[in-house]
Amino acid sequence: MPIHFIPAFTDNYIYIAETPKGAWIIDPGCADPVFAWCAEHQRCPSAILCTHHHADHTGGVEALVQRFRIPVYGANQRIPQLTHAVRAGLLALDEESLTVLAVPGHTRDHLAYVWKGALFCGDTLFAAGCGRLFEGTAAQMFHSLQQLARLPGDTAVYCAHEYTLSNLRFAAQVDPENPIIAQRQEMATAQRARNAPTLPSSVTLECASNPFLRCHEPALIRSANTFDPDTGDDPVRVFSTLRRWKDHFS
Ligand SMILES: [Zn+2]
To answer: Which reaction does it catalyse (predicted)?
Structure first.
């Protein structure tokens, strides 16, 4: 079950998941690189899956539908050309079964898709980071991330952006004694130097080094309270403080 990376814009990834009966395009922010991939590999996609409505994840939907006449899956009509509104639960597609998770926070109706040990999480979970809170609350995002953290540890995490190195800089600042962060920085720097993706990550790796999944750890509680002394040790409040800090971190 190969999963292909199609880089788009400056730091997006569109994914194509090849199944025995089809090929799904996940979060096509634009169409041209997908057309190029399909021509090169002589494959026609069978469906589009969208995690959320932002244009850098859906901008290519209309042109792809025009060309291939394929169904579009997503949360609701905020996804252009939507043909199948899906909600949390099982989704049958091309004789495969996917698990759909509702992960509000970045947007209020953000979805994640799990298929055969691969997680497509859009802008909810990033390698060593998480999405900004555009529509949801800190508590919603915290619980969405916890839901992803409970997936099997070897679940491969396919995020929609290549943000790993900048996320790791923040992780090193807020969790300075964590040796896994330094290891990841070294590996990700080498990967980016040869223009390779730093993804997929894994749930185990994220739980060990992603500050937004580690809000219960003393080191993160300490750091959050240096940024905002009113934080305390409640994990949702720690998450909220870290997210606000990251919004202004450079
Ligand atoms: Zn987004």
So the answer is: an S-(2-hydroxyacyl)glutathione + H2O = a 2-hydroxy carboxylate + glutathione + H(+)
How many residues are there in the chain?
Answer: 250
Would you say 11 and 34 are in contact if contact means Cβ atoms under 8 Å apart? no
- Tens-digit pLDDT profile for residues 71-103: 999 999 999 999 999 999 999 999 999 999 999
Among candidate residues 27, 106, 110, 175, the one labeled active-site is: 106
CB 181 within 8 A of CB 168: yes
pLDDT, tens digit, for every residue of 7-32?
Answer: 999 999 999 999 999 999 999 999 99
CA distance 161 to 181: 19
Beta strands 23-26; 12-18: pairing state = antiparallel
Could you tell me the residue ranges of all domains in the chain? 1-85
Q: Which of 53, 57, 109, 175 is catalytic?
A: 57
Residue 41: strand pairing partners: none
Of the candidates 147, 145, 155, 156, the one whose C-alpha atom is nearest the C-alpha of residue 210 is 145
State yes or no: is 84 an active-site residue: no
Which residues have CB atoms below 5 A from the ion given as ligand 1? 54, 123
CATH class of residue range 1-85: alpha beta
